[in-house]
Structure formats: structure tokens, C-alpha cells
Amino acid sequence: MTTPENDGRPAEDQWVFLIDPAWQAQFAENAREGDATEEVSDGPAEQEVEVQGPPLEAVVGGWLVTADGTVGRFRANPDYVPSQPGSPTDPVDATLQLLVRGEIDSDALFAVLKESVFDVALDAAGRPIIAPSPDDVPSLLVSTAPAQRHRVHADDWRAEVTAVELSDLLQEYQVDVLFNPGGPASVRLVGDMFTEYVTAE
């Protein structure tokens, strides 16, 4: 038995990526076709097969796992292009879609929100944009990932706002929060309720 050369080396930080399901399905199909080709090939029994990773636009985002096993917050890929209009762009968007379909409750949503970061729409002066929600309630416009921004007319964005920082903004302006305006799972949450949940121990 041989010992791998990297045995004994200190552990390193690693990224764990979330890939668009459509690309995963295509990759699996290509792999099956490759296996079938090898079975009928007259070439050597063992061949090196080059495995290509997903294109950048198929990477939804990822989590940084540090050497001690700590998992960081999800970081959305700004270059991600959803394969379908309703494809979730991040864990919060996926959870919002489950909530809208009645498959989870608000406790499950807030558990995800507390560990996430958000993008807040800004006006030309750098102030958060406050606009009426579909039910006519003044709300802060927030996207859960860069792929959600295109539906909002904003001059700029404040990126990677934590849940606590978002709570502070909601309390400062005394408004609610509207996640992913115009999206397939756009949801308004009452500002005071958001603050209560994300600041609870």
C-alpha cells in the first residue's frame, strides 16, 4: 500500500459549490453516453477521461468550509444564469418558493434568513429604496442574489447585507421588507417580525 503524498498535510479551506440542476442533469446524460461509447470501443480497456467542471454561469454559488470544518454563509455567484425562469438562485429563494407553495412554515424560513446575506436596492443618493409592495405597504426592496436584481430599477446595490444589518435598516426606516420584487416567490415580511426572529437567541 502506498501513502498519498499529501497525507499529513494541514487541512485547507475549501469551497462547496451549488450547481444548477439542469447542468447536473446534462452532465449525467453526457457521462452515460460516454460510458456507452467506451463499452463498444475497440481501444484500450483503460482510458483517461477528461472531466470538465460546470461553466461559471451554471454555478449558483457556494459555501466556504474552513480547515476546522466551519461552514460559512452562502455566497451567490454574480455570474450565475438560471436555466429556467423559476430556478432558485440561492437557498433563501428556494426556501421562499417552498413557503409560497405551503411546504414549509415561517420558522423554517427564518432559520435560513438568519444565516444569509442580501442585496439592498439603493437610489442615486445611496439611500435604500422604499417602494410600495404589491399590497401597497412601504417596503425596502431586497434581492437574495445578484440574479434577482434585474427586476428592480435601482441606481446601485448594497451587497452582502447580513440579517442583523437588514434588521437595523428596517427599524431605522420603519418599513417592511420585500424580497425579490417581481420574482416567482416575492414575499413581504413585516419589519418588526423580521427583527424579532433574526435577533432572537
TrEMBL record:
Record's protein name: SseB protein N-terminal domain-containing protein
Gene source species: Saccharopolyspora shandongensis
Domain of life the protein comes from: Bacteria
InterPro entries: T7SS_assoc (IPR047659)
Region (Disordered): 30-50
Acidic residues compositional bias, start-end: 36-49
